[in-house]
């Protein structure tokens, strides 16, 4: 092993340790809880191993909790609804984020930094506060309703809170920077000569965008979409504060299992299945991207 | 040699300061808006103990911390019906009653009530108690239902015709299945303490009918909304609704709020002072429990939060306005109709929560 490869190991060991400590170990803890049974003890589940000194001598875990998730359509519907809301929310982010990223990438260098700062600036306040700000905007006596009624446009307040609209706008406000930044990175790298060449060869601006700019920024679109989609699926705060009670989402279902039913094992299996829902499409996507670039 | 002396001296100092730290601190976890403004300050002045005071707004959150263990708190305030199974899970230690001379101040009747949850009152004492009833905006209800609106009855919300007329001014209910479903059962003439899933189902069917008229399910949001006039009817906790009334009075916004215990009966609940098994400052926790059982201190708290006290000598020190309010200190006739929550086992809990989800989501 040469000096170079030793250096390389030194560089990758800290992230591996970090991931092992804060991702892999918690993952196995949750996996283990998901295989156990609830109990009136502290902590409130049975141990799936019997320990003899340092070695487990017997294993009593089973997949009962996962079977339970299939027995009630509630869980499947929560997953599907969460995926739907995350997919639509991320798409709205893309529609809004793309033009913004495009303008920033095309702006001249001085202005560009200011614009980027403006995109990042809201991230300096807690996302919870930004959601509360939305409540202040949307509530029946809030900013929007009082302004509209002051101008005499409406008589009775519009129902903005506890709607799907509120959830989607919450997702957009919270996650838009995560969409814009990778899009900006992709568009900024885009070679302006290619766009010029396309128009020289007679392509309309729309055709140029559709056949040159968009395909070349696809990596940014995928990265931005995933960055918004993944946290949106497990989102709890936004639907809990802005959404209506009939909006079934997996974050809320998990909360009910963990806090109301005190069933940590079922809550853990809900979490494991959610992870599978997210990891499998991502692995698939990675493979297709590799195949595409090869 | 010199180095060794310095090391030993600093070690001794470290031990001394940590021992002192153990002696002089207390970590309390209580409900939000649930103590007088000066209670902690007075305790610190009297005992020299430094208090760290954190708050929560649901029994579930407290329970999850306690069950996970090592919560770091020395004194917590669970509701009695939750505490019953927490005791079974080994979460709490027995109180040393020799350190609680003020225990004699507590009303035997109320302590007898909570003995159903904690036999012989070994683990906890009553902090405050209250009821789950109806809070409403007087003007808006009269405007929509007339002057003879059934404001003293569960009819006001569970009768679909009434709920429909009030939907536009906003109805909210607690997001607490073990309080809301039994209330609906009571309205239907079913024993609210029943743990039969078939009874939950009947309550759920009733709720599904009024669900389209309910604006939201939440356990603390309604205080502000009721005070601002954003909602006009809520099922909520007595003291919270009185706080909403106070806020509306202070804002002088023309909103008049009332609280009633429905004549059919309502849930009464007890919040308990208890010491977790793994508490580090047990001695100080006892001192605090004894401190708040002092008549004057309890009276100060009730005068501030408008929740009922179980402290007999404190009654003489509580504001007359509060003592006379039947929503806080119910008459014996009303008291006879109050019920206390049963202790639900895991299976019943799942059944009642599942009905609640189905009410809220239609699934």
Amount of helix of chain A:
over 70%
Helix content of chain B: 40-55%
Q: Give the mean pLDDT of chain B.
A: 91
Structural class of chain B: alpha/beta
CATH level-two architecture of the domain at 72-262 in chain A? Orthogonal Bundle
Q: Tell me the number of helical segments of chain A per DSSP (H or I, 4 or more residues long).
A: 13
Task: Note the total helix count of chain B.
Answer: 17
CATH class of the largest domain in chain B: Alpha Beta
CATH fold-level label of the domain at 72-262 in chain A: MetI-like fold
Low-confidence stretches of chain B: 13-20
| Oligomeric state of this protein | heterodimer
The percentage of residues in β strands of chain A lies in under 5%
Number of strands of chain A: 2
Main β sheet profile of chain B: 7 strands, mixed
Question: What's the rounded overall pLDDT mean of chain A?
Answer: 89
Q: CATH superfamily of the largest domain in chain B, called what? A: Periplasmic binding protein-like II
Through-space gap between termini of chain B:
76 Å
Described by the principal axes of the CA atoms, the overall outline of chain A is: globular
Enter the CATH topology name of the largest domain in chain B.
D-Maltodextrin-Binding Protein, domain 2
If you had to describe this structure to a student in words, what would you say it looks like?
The complex is a heterodimer of chains A (294) and B (363). Chain A has 13 helices and two strands, in the order H-E-E-H-H-H-H-H-H-H-H-H-H-H-H. By secondary structure, chain A is mainly alpha-helical. Chain A has a two-stranded antiparallel sheet. In chain A, a hairpin with a 2-residue loop joins strand 1 and strand 2. The longest helix of chain A has 34 residues. Chain A is globular and about 75 Å long. The model of chain A has no long low-confidence stretch (mean pLDDT 89). In chain B, strands 4, 5, 6, 7, 8, 9 and 10 form a seven-stranded mixed sheet that branches. In chain B, strands 2-1-3 form a three-stranded parallel sheet. Chain B folds into two domains: 188 residues, Periplasmic binding protein-like II (D-Maltodextrin-Binding Protein, domain 2, 3-Layer(aba) Sandwich), CATH 3.40.190; 159 residues, Periplasmic binding protein-like II (D-Maltodextrin-Binding Protein, domain 2, 3-Layer(aba) Sandwich). Chain B starts with a helix and ends with a helix. The longest helix of chain B is centred in the first third of the chain and has 22 residues. About 2% of the residues of chain B have low confidence. By secondary structure, chain B is an alpha/beta fold. The interface between A and B is medium-sized, with 29 and 36 residues.
